[in-house]
Amino acid sequence: MNTKTEWRTNRFSLLELLVVISVIVILIGLLLPALNKSLDKARSISCLNNEKTTGIAIMNYSLDNEEWLVIGSGGYGNLNRWYLYLSGKMTNGMKHSLTTKNYGVVYNGNKVTYGTFACPSESEPFATYEVTHYGQNSYLLVGEETGRDTGKFRRRRLNSVFHPSVAITIADTNSPNLVNPGNLRTFSYRHGAREMRAPAADEDPFSGGMTNVLYLDGHATGRKYMDMILNVSDGDIRTTYGNRNIPNRRPMLAGFYYDNISVD
Question: I need a surface site. Which of 44, 114, 169, 236 has the fewest CB within 10 A?
Answer without folding.
Answer: 114
